[in-house]
């Protein structure tokens, strides 16, 4: 018997959708779709590949190094921008007076916001404006979940369930008056999926996951 698409039953769907091992992001090199998986970032278009640093931040960073010149005693510093894979522990700094070059310890900070529309410092591939908010998803399976929830007219929830993704969705996503808008933006996100991941969950159809489609 096929499931009723008008009914959503919250059985405590685990946080797997937000603890995913595969996240679609924007490539730093070509701005096309890339995948974060297994501690690596790999672009599906240009082939860019790199490790996610231990800091967990792969986006652009500002690096600063400063101290005293060993040649003349003048205070010197240097500040620059780069991709953080990995952030440098030191930078060469040239004194503007005596021209001595000294390697000084550096510190860094992210250039973009560490908010929900980023993952490891990289912009999520699946994000779009939705009214005064941003609708986003990590991957195709996460998007499927959002669509199933928003589409349902009857939303059942087991008592004392506060660890499921459904229980943590923002109020504007849950609001029935936003249903049409949110579903329209979900369709926008689905059109952005890599071709192999564009699938629908028809009644009775086996769930197809990113593990099936993106090996």
Average pLDDT: 76
Number of strands: 14
Weakly predicted, low-confidence segments: 198-215
Instruction: Summarize the amount of helix as a percent range.
Output: 10-25%
Largest sheet: 4 strands, antiparallel
Task: Give the C-alpha Rg.
Answer: 23 Å
Written overview of the protein:
This protein has 215 residues and is α+β, with helices and mostly antiparallel strands. The protein folds into 2 domains: 7-55 and 116-213, no CATH class; 60-110. It has helices at residues 140-151, 165-168, 171-174, 179-192, 210-213; strands at 7-10, 22-26, 33-37, 40-43, 49-51, 60-68, 75-83, 90-94, 101-110, 118-119, 122-123, 126-130, 133-137, 154-157. The strands form 5 sheets. Strands 2-3-4-5 form a 4-stranded antiparallel β-sheet, with no helix packed on it. The chain has a 4-stranded antiparallel β-sheet with strand order 7-6-9-8, with no helix packed on it. Strand 4 and strand 5 (49-51) form a beta hairpin. Helix 1 runs antiparallel to helix 4 (179-192). It starts with 6 loop residues before the first strand and ends with a helix. The model is unreliable at 198-215 (pLDDT under 50).
